[in-house]
Amino acid sequence: MTLAHGQPLVMIPGPSVVPDEVLAAMHRPMPNIYEGEIVKLTYRLLEELPVLARTEHRVYMAISNGHGGWEMAITNTLSRGDHILVLEVGKFATAWAANAVKSGLTYEVLEAPTGLAIDPEAVRERLVADTERTIAAVLVAQVDTASSVHNDIEAIRGALDAADHPALLMVDCVASLGCEPFEMDAWGVDVAVAGTQKGLMVPPGMSFVWASPRAEQAHKTADLRTGYWDWTARATSSEYYWIFCGTPPVSHMWGLEAALAMLNEEGLEAAWHRHRVMAEATHAAVDAWAAPGALRLHVDNPAHRAQSVTLMETGSVDANALRATTQREAGLTLGMNIQGEHAAGVRIAHMGHVNPPMLLGCLGTIEAALIASDAPMGASGVAAAAASIAGALDPVNSRDASAGWGSDVVAADAPAGGGAADEPAGGGDCCG
Ligand SMILES: *Cc1c(COP(=O)(O)O)cnc(C)c1O
């Protein structure tokens, strides 16, 4: 008999878990869209979203999923016949370029060996060889959600600079924004793309494209521009209506407002830190489970691992059966492997609204399913994950702890807001 009758947990790499605060914020009657609160909120989001991507420049918001953000980025900056260099560590950068082929672009793929991040030196060499400067843009995902490989965007910018190549650097941050450091201006990114439904904790339906001054310059001569996606109308029209080229996504904006308030309260650096702790705990669990021919991490090098998602290769263990067991028998939905040609696997998302009880519940459920199916297994992944998280926990000392049963008096010398235990552990000093 199934044990799934509790709060279901969906740990797939998008859409991620949406906090109740966000769901509640979206559940409102439709407003007047010609004046008042929603108009003010729109302009506030246009100011807050650049802070999230660490840029002083403009963001464009659209009603779409990530694919729409991709298309907005391409059509606003490139022209028919332009050639693109795709840096691939999984699936997503090539998918982005393949969409652009239909707009009349060509592309080539520089693929990293499986499980590895892009080698910036290989990028430099390819760009140096492009003596005619035919490459108009370099496309890369900061985190590839299929492989769970993370790319070093700053180092890739270094490769463009070392080759003195003018191509636009376009970065897909759909699966990394809010989950790991991203510094658009400091890293010299020309175009960044993200969506609501991964690290930003809002249902799918809005995408964002941040544009550097170089991207805005390219926009002036881009001939792929279309009516709906066009930046110029969205940025320069005096009419509010053109910011979204039509009716604004009011419910999503309320959800985004709530999600950004949560991120602000936590602090962006603290959120990055939390994601790192969740990722390292997941890696520790899979490393402990690992057995020859069975489970293992897809990404060997810790420096190449994403903070938002982990691909666990399953070897001789049937990945589909494992996912079906956790879902049907225990209420836990895991991501499937979408790297067709590679080994069988399961993806564990730890992006957005995820804390230790959720992650440990997820890992514990996987472990129970592995034991139930007699899967070959090393040691307990749950024990390893708990030990990993313990390293980041600040224990509350007994003087500051409440005794319970109504003794909610905060110790006189504890900081306002409930004491040191409420501070993110080591927040901020992890990502500098
Ligand atoms: C999810 C994802 C996308 C695509 O987003 P959709 O909303 O499905 O169109 C693009 N890039 C990356 C890295 C993703 O993880």
Written description of the protein model:
With 432 residues, this protein is an alpha/beta fold. Helix content is 37%, strand content 16%. It is built from 13 helices and 14 strands. The strands form 3 sheets. A 7-stranded mixed β-sheet has the order 2-10-9-8-5-3-4, sandwiched between helices. Strands 1-13-14-12-11 form a 5-stranded mixed β-sheet, sandwiched between helices. It has a two-stranded antiparallel ribbon with strand order 6-7. The termini are far apart. Pyridoxal-5'-phosphate binds next to helix 3.
Assembly context of the chains: single chain
Overall mean pLDDT: 93
Strand line-up in the sheet with most strands? 2-10-9-8-5-3-4
Helix content: 25-40%
The H/E string reads: EHHEHEHEHEEEHEEEHHHHEEHEEHH
Query: What coarse outline follows from CA principal-axis ratios?
Result: globular
Query: How is the biggest beta sheet arranged?
Result: 7 strands, mixed
In DSSP terms, counting alpha (H) and pi (I) runs of 4 or more, how many helices? 13
